[in-house]
Amino acid sequence: MIPISQSHIDRIVKDLTPPDEQARTQARAHLDTLTKPLGSLGRLEDIAAQLIAIHGAAPSLPLRKAVYTFAADHGIADEGVSAYPRAVTRQMVLNFLHGGAAINVLARLHGVALHVVDAGVDADFGGIPNLIHRKVRNGSRNMLHEPAMSDEELAKAIAVGAELAQQASAAGMQLIAIGEMGIGNTTSASAITCALTGASAAKATGRGTGVDHAAHAHKIHIVERVVTKHCPENTPPLAILQRVGGLEIAAMTGMVLAAATHRITIVCDGFISTAAAALAAAIAPEVKGYLIAGHRSEEPGHALLLSYLDLMPVLTLNMRLGEGTGAVLAMPVIESALALYSRMATFASANISEASQ
Ligand SMILES: O=C(O)c1ccc[n+]([C@@H]2O[C@H](COP(=O)([O-])O)[C@@H](O)[C@H]2O)c1
Ligand SMILES: Cc1cc2nc[nH]c2cc1C
């Protein structure tokens, strides 16, 4: 029998195609006509060409931008893997709703619509306004003892992100960032990294919110046990997600799959959101062409995932916050790339001599 989650995925990615390579080639040719030494805008040229390959033509500015911050709790937090208590997930959701978190500041500053999603926080928010209420369960299960999610919970969590991507598409969004909040979720991201890349737990496990030396050693041991238990070599990506993922991670994976299908550019944030995107790319490789890495997090596993995805981060600011902050910070750079593409003079129009060799 096909798992419910697989049939959901099949439906989501039914019309997924990679970005348009002909449009990318044409964009590269146009970049070479602009008044600058060939290739001198570096990665900005790659970014402009990628967006044009996605949209088929240069979109007008400003782009319509949104960030989705998915929150959920993790059963594995019971094992002492975080520097903070799990109550912080709920408390930070309230902070997001009151506008006081880092992501609120950055989203406001850069004209990015912020959507806060409860995918599985272990708290009752009642009918509190401005929260997207999509709780699948009060936290994922403790993956040291059982899979983090049942097949049905996984399918529901994936559907949360997919539905929001569909709404973003209907609202004309062109650039979306995925971010998260969930005490314990770097343990999941580390386990996912081990399962996808074959890296050891020692290489893929960092200090998350800032655990001390002893707790870090303990966390590495937990990741090792979890991966040994659930993810033998060649475990399919959907099974990895179900067994060692989390509700917010599954929602982000669903969002990436559906957003790519709707030809929306997705900016990944740090370690956890990139783990979700890496799973989406493992499930449907065409997704890769729609991804931009907003930044490179301090978490050591993030670098492993970025090379797994063959992505170069836009920014390196030694951040390790999450919430979508690094992704939103990259958005003005992405828009700058498009502004240069569309607004610079050409050698011909400005009457400037081209390279002589
Ligand atoms: O974005 C990152 O790379 C990142 C790195 C370390 C920690 N975080 C955030 O910290 C929380 C998880 O850390 P931990 O130690 O509880 O596993 C979660 O809310 C993440 O958003 C985020
Ligand atoms: C305070 C706090 C804010 C966060 N934002 C994302 N993860 C977080 C973890 C903590 C502990």
From TrEMBL:
Pathway note: Nucleoside biosynthesis; alpha-ribazole biosynthesis; alpha-ribazole from 5,6-dimethylbenzimidazole: step 1/2
EC number: 2.4.2.21
Cited InterPro entries: Nict_dMeBzImd_PRibTrfase, Nict_dMeBzImd_PRibTrfase_bact, Nict_dMeBzImd_PRibTrfase_N, Nict_dMeBzImd_PRibTrfase_sf
One BP annotation, GO: cobalamin biosynthetic process
Reaction catalysis annotation: 5,6-dimethylbenzimidazole + nicotinate beta-D-ribonucleotide = alpha-ribazole 5'-phosphate + nicotinate + H(+)
Enzyme class: transferase
Alphabetized GO MF terms: nicotinate-nucleotide-dimethylbenzimidazole phosphoribosyltransferase activity
Superkingdom field: Bacteria
Keywords from the UniProt entry: Cobalamin biosynthesis, Glycosyltransferase, Transferase
Active site: E323
One protein family per Pfam: DBI_PRT
Similarity comment: Belongs to the CobT family.
Classification via HAMAP family: CobT
Reported function: Catalyzes the synthesis of alpha-ribazole-5'-phosphate from nicotinate mononucleotide (NAMN) and 5,6-dimethylbenzimidazole (DMB).
Name of this protein: Nicotinate-nucleotide--dimethylbenzimidazole phosphoribosyltransferase
Species name: Granulicella rosea
Phylogenetic placement of the source organism: Bacteria, Pseudomonadati, Acidobacteriota, Terriglobia, Terriglobales
